[in-house]
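INFO  loader      accepted 1 record
INFO  loader      residues=103
INFO  predictor   begin
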Amino acid sequence: MERLVEVNIFGQDYTIKTDADAEYIQRIAKYVDEKMDEIVRNTKTVSTLNTAILAALNIADDFFKELEKRKEILAEVENRSMEIVKTIDTQLKQYTGEEEYSE
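INFO  predictor   done
INFO  writer      dumping tokens
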């Protein structure tokens, strides 16, 4: 069910129309606000637009790094799963004397 959620980012109030939980939207807004504050603290920019663009780039960087970590973890899970299947197959072959399982 859609609802309106009030958030404050960088001193500006926004009304967000969303199906998501209000607390979740508040957490997202807080994250964006913190990124923008971080930009202001670490740069000499005073432009809200430049601050927003730099914050968006930082957030996109965080996102793509997490995607890469996820890919690496999934590849590792897949590799370990295949090793487990091979180990089980080998053990079954030794136990039953049958041919190894193959896909």
